[in-house]
Write a structure and sequence with these properties.
single chain; alpha+beta; eight-stranded antiparallel barrel; 26% helix; 33% strand; globular; DUF3293 domain-containing protein; DUF3293
Length: 144
């Protein structure tokens, strides 16, 4: 497995926490949806943390994320802080759940910050959207 494929595989297992909304979302097999979708339409999760194979450290990741959030705020987009991590909470990355983006814009944000993919959450799927020409992956979801 090449390095990019290994990094992308981590997206498929990521648990998403949205502390201010009291949400914990876990990926599930495609077609599985458990819980009530809390938005009027699809939302996206973007981050500036750990671009590609880089691991710039806590201070640089925080500074990058602050710049991304300032850009989202300047566009008047509604957002909440997220933490995507492994099931046990390790490998955590701060991000932003954003209302009002379409897939192309969300992927453009991801690509601009060196990300391999972003998430889209809809009533029917938890999707890992590739920021390049790699295929996207639809999963199910569960709110716990």
């Amino acid at each position: 497995m090449d390095e990019r494929t290994a990094r992308t595989a981590d997206y498929l297992r990521a648990v998403l926490r949205v502390p201010d909304l009291g949400l914990v979302l876990r990926p599930r097999p495609p077609g599985t949806v458990r819980g009530t979708f809390p938005f009027d339409g699809p939302v996206h999760v973007v981050t500036a943390h750990n671009p590609g194979a880089e691991r710039p450290g806590e201070a640089e990741n925080a500074a990058r994320q602050a710049r991304l959030e300032a850009d989202l705020d300047a566009r008047g987009l509604r957002r909440w802080t997220t933490v995507a991590s492994a099931e046990d909470g390790s490998s955590a990355e701060v991000g932003a759940l954003v209302v009002g983006l379409d897939d192309a814009v969300a992927c453009a944000f991801g690509a601009a910050w060196g990300q391999d993919a972003v998430f889209r959450w809809s009533p029917s799927a938890w999707t890992v959207l590739a920021c390049d020409d790699a295929p996207s992956v639809d999963l199910g979801w569960e709110i716990v």
